[in-house]
């Protein structure tokens, strides 16, 4: 076998393996995570309210009930990067508080974020641990205090966050 034929064969094998990997990755992303495969879809695009120390209104994208009777929340996101952000955790945690308050049913301490690439090239699942109820309440009270001027914002951990903040001009720390 000549060097040219061997090189062509090698490139063909690599391209074939890469194609199989991509196909497997796409199929795997579309499959539900193990925790949701046997679960039943209970709520879709439904609004829930929690009234107490703080009032929380949250729209749940999807909620599934597993065999143990717990609800598992799912948030759908379309974005450039396949990753879950802290804002997703906060959103799902607020949903958890509202669902538990309105229904009285147990909701899992974790949830899922399903990201779809903005160019339509694939999806990915991200399991996230949710905040405790007390932390959700504290965050809501802090937000209220910031909006009423009773508290002042702390410096951001990143200047990039400051640059994209709509209040950057009012903030003296940046």
Mean pLDDT: 83
Q: In percent, how helical is the residue content?
A: 40-55%
**Rg from Cα:** 22 Å
| Strand proportion | 25-35%
N-to-C SSE series?
HHEEEHEEHH
Largest sheet: 5 strands, mixed
Number of helical elements:
5
Number of strands: 5
Enumerate the spans where pLDDT stays under 50 for 5 or more consecutive residues.
25-29
Termini separation: 66 Å
Q: Summarize this, please?
A:
The chain is of the alpha+beta class and 174 residues long. 41% of the residues lie in helices and 28% in strands.
Summarize the structure in words.
The protein has 174 residues and is an alpha+beta fold. The protein has five helices and five strands; from the N terminus they run ααβββαββαα. It has helices spanning 3-30, 34-37, 86-103, 133-148, 159-164, and strands at 40-50, 56-65, 71-79, 107-117, 123-129. A five-stranded mixed sheet has the order 1-2-3-4-5, sandwiched between helices. The chain is flat, with a radius of gyration of 22 Å. 19% of the residues are buried. Residues 25-29 have low confidence and may be disordered.
List keywords for this structure.
174 residues; alpha+beta; 5-stranded mixed β-sheet; 5 helices; flat
Helix-strand layout with pairing:
Blueprint: H1 3-30, H2 34-37, E1 40-50, E2 56-65, E3 71-79, H3 86-103, E4 107-117, E5 123-129, H4 133-148, H5 159-164
């Amino acid at each position: 076998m000549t060097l040219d034929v061997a090189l062509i064969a090698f490139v063909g094998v690599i391209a074939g393996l890469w194609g199989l990997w991509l196909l497997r990755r796409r199929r795997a992303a579309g499959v539900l995570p193990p925790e949701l495969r046997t679960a039943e879809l209970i709520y879709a695009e439904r609004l829930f309210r929690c009234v107490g120390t703080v009032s929380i209104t949250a729209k749940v994208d999807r909620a599934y009930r597993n065999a143990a009777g717990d609800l598992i929340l799912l948030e759908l996101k379309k974005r450039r990067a396949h990753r879950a952000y802290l804002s997703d955790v906060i959103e799902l945690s607020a949903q958890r508080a509202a669902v538990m308050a309105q229904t009285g049913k147990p909701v899992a301490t974790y949830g899922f974020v399903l990201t779809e690439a903005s160019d339509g090239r694939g999806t990915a699942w991200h399991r996230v641990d949710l905040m405790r109820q007390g932390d959700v309440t504290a965050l809501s009270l802090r937000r209220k205090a910031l909006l009423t001027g009773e508290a002042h914002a702390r410096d951001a951990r990143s200047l990039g966050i400051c640059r994209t903040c709509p209040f950057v001009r009012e903030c003296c720390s940046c």
